[in-house]
Design goal:
By secondary structure, the chain is α/β, with parallel strands linked by helices. It is about 40% helix and about 20% strand. The protein has a six-stranded parallel β-sheet, with helices on both faces. The chain is globular. The two termini are about 15 Å apart.
């Protein structure tokens, strides 16, 4: 019989060892014992291997489109695995991974469910923390942010058919409750949002428990 499959996309944190495709490896192994296939991918913010800190902000919009294309390619790869049921696909992402996930779920209707951890409503809010060429200033900043208008998660998320669990931290240095709300309130009916006593890393047992529970129920539906 064919298996459910999950696409996992990692976070960015220069100070941890799991800012790469290993972030969700343990969870993917647990899901594998239940007959679920997983694909864990590298991105341009992977450490090591990515070019995130050397990138130029002038290229951020193009980088975004390229990464989105890469993610769509990853979906095709998952679907092409012989034992995978292409009608039983799921997504998990954290931070940048979740923000791109929100976009992917909207341009690719392949996913039944998703868990988006610490996703932000406006992707340019991540980019303006800095790049190899600095950050856009004044008028440049307005123009820069405007570029992302059509692809921003808060605009796209309403088009996703996936059932989404949003996981946010109560003590998130990077995401205010308003920024979280700007995204999850736009999602289709059936979305759930949970806030945890955690920082941006969401590394508390409760988040993992809820995520696994959500996925176990979703793959069985």
């Amino acid at each position: 019989s064919k298996q459910a499959a999950i696409l996992y996309v990692h976070w960015l944190d220069a100070n941890t060892k799991d800012s790469n495709r290993t972030q969700f490896l343990e969870e993917a192994k647990i899901m594998a014992t239940k007959g679920v296939s997983s694909l864990l991918i590298s991105t341009f913010w992977s450490i090591p291997g990515g070019y995130y800190f050397e990138r130029r902000w002038q290229d951020d919009y193009q980088n975004t489109l390229h990464q989105l294309k890469d993610l769509q390619h990853a979906v095709e790869i998952l679907k092409s695995i012989p034992n995978v049921d292409s009608n039983n696909l799921h997504f998990v992402g954290h931070d940048y991974g979740a923000t791109f996930g929100a976009m992917l779920l909207s341009v690719d209707q392949s996913f039944n469910s998703a868990v988006l951890m610490a996703a932000i409503a406006d992707i340019s809010d991540w980019y303006v923390y800095g790049s190899g060429s600095g950050v856009p200033q004044a008028n440049e900043l307005d123009k820069f942010k405007q570029q992302f208008h059509s692809v921003n998660p808060h605009r796209l998320i309403q088009y996703s058919n996936a059932k989404i669990l949003f996981q946010y931290a109560k003590n998130d240095f990077f995401i205010s409750s308003q920024q979280a709300e700007a995204l999850y309130t736009k999602a289709a009916k059936g979305a759930e949002v949970k806030f945890y006593d955690s920082d941006h890393s969401l590394k508390v047992n409760e988040t993992k428990h809820d995520r696994m529970d959500w996925l176990n129920r979703a793959v069985a539906e």
